[in-house]
TrEMBL record:
It comes from Alkalihalobacillus alcalophilus ATCC 27647 = CGMCC 1.3604. SUPFAM superfamilies: P-loop containing nucleoside triphosphate hydrolases (SSF52540). One of its GO terms (molecular function) is ATP binding. It comes from the Bacteria. This is D-methionine transporter. Pfam families: ABC_tran.
């Protein structure tokens, strides 16, 4: 179970403020496959990076299986990340495998799901 609660992310530089993610709430239930689609720059990658706190949200909370990631210590977060599979956009896919085989290869899901 994955829950994003009221997630916003603002990048601020000297000359500009970019709201990359604006007040997103998503509940993904166990065994549910959830797609996030949007134009280039819509904030998809930022939201996914927030999902394991590679990026900290400016506002909001993330729960993985009831565990609130945003309140964990560094050590607890490292341990929690062992259970979160992530495939980055531009590399790491095995080109001669199918999408399903890539997911099976790269994500630490229980065998019962396959
Ligand atoms: N580290 C950063 N600093 C400043 N702005 C950023 C940063 N990362 C992303 N952005 C900006 O946040 C917005 C969302 O970017 P993001 O990469 O999440 O979009 P995306 O939906 O994944 O796009 P794409 O489909 O091209 O991969 C964009 O305007 C982007 O320029
Ligand atoms: Mg992206």
């Amino acid at each position: 179970m994955i829950r994003f609660e009221n997630i916003s992310k603002v990048y601020q530089s000297k000359n500009s403020i970019i709201e990359a993610v604006s007040n997103v709430t998503i509940h993904v239930k166990e065994r549910e496959i959830y797609g996030i689609i949007g134009f280039s720059g819509a904030g998809k990658s930022t939201l996914l990076r927030i999902g394991n706190l590679l990026e900290k949200p400016s506002v909001g909370k993330i729960y993985m299986n009831q565990q609130p990631l945003t309140t964990l210590s560094k050590k607890e977060l490292r341990e929690a990340r062992h259970k979160i599979g992530m495939i980055f956009q531009s590399f790491n896919l095995v080109s001669n495998k199918t999408v399903w085989d890539n997911v099976r290869f790269l994500c630490p899901l229980p065998q019962s799901l396959f």
